[in-house]
Amino acid sequence: MTEAANITQKTTTVGSGSSAREIAIIHRAARRKKPGPAFVWLGGYRSDMAGTKAVELDAFAGELGLAAIRFDYSGHGISGGVFREGTISRWLEEAIAVLDDIKPKRVILVGSSMGGWIALRLVQELRKRKKAAKIDGIVLIAPAPDFTAELIEPSLTDKERQSLAERGYFEEHSEYSPEPNIYTRDLIEDGRRNLVMTGIIETGCPVHILQGMKDPDVPYTHALKLVEFLPADDVVLTLIRDGDHRLSRPQDIEKLKTAVSGLILND
Which whole number is the average pLDDT over 177-204? Predict the structure, then answer.
């Protein structure tokens, strides 16, 4: 099977009626006779599956002969839907739908920034199911669980609060795009219903966190706090002294590959 033949791009419909949206998926099939876990990429806020880390993870899966699953949340990348309608619940629903569509038996979840929050919520939802993919491990890159309540709400200015009340959203300058970040009232209110750092988070698998100490968006103290909510699991925290939020430099990608490799069970 050629490299191109090994990769399928497709869409799956999530929701119905006015809430229906087409979610774009790129699925790399495993080449092993006895396949191991599929890598599942969970991107960050306003990121897409064509980003450096997502592409490098997919390529690494190819090198190992493993499966990889990438997708764009609604309102992101090449998926349908409206970005401003996005919430944690909505994007979580889409992550679940993608796994239901591909049906991997075993997975390693790799969540970047907001994708770290989605990953932890995804674990909670999968644990409620009798039949679900077995989670072999989780890699969290600059994870931002509960970021709406922990990082955004406490620092809201009077002007931003007024904008939320009157317009239903506020805008913030983005370091990564000429377009401003938009945070909606729905996102913030829904975030409160999806908080994970409220008690022990039981993932039932090893967790490796990669965190830059020069991250201007998610302070490394947030990662330290997250570790306190993972007392039952084997957790490794790698602090990268000169690392920023993206962690997309070649040396950062090598750390990502090492972290993922450490979670692959010997079959």
Answer: 95
Q: How much is the pTM?
A: 0.95
Residue that has been written with the tokens 């075993």 in this structure: 106
CA 213, 113, 133, 50 dihedral sign is negative
Least confident of 39-53, 168-182, 193-207: 168-182
3-state DSSP call for residue 213? coil
Task: Please write down the long-range contacts of 96-101, taking CB distance under 8 Å and 24 or more positions apart.
Answer: 96/122, 96/125, 96/126, 97/12, 97/14, 97/23, 98/12, 98/23, 98/25, 98/69, 98/71, 99/40, 99/69, 99/126, 99/132, 99/133, 101/10, 101/12, 101/25
DSSP state of 91: H
Determine contact, residues 94/71, Cβ cutoff 8 Å: yes
CA distances from 104 to 66, 101, 124, 131, 195 (A): 11, 9, 17, 11, 27
**Tens-place pLDDT, residues 112-122:** 999 999 999 99
Q: What type of residue sits at position 190?
A: D
Measured distance CA(51)–CA(13) in Å, rounded: 23
Structure token pair of residue 234: 């084997």
Burial class (CB within 10 angstroms; exposed 0-12, middle 13-18, buried 19+) of 244: middle
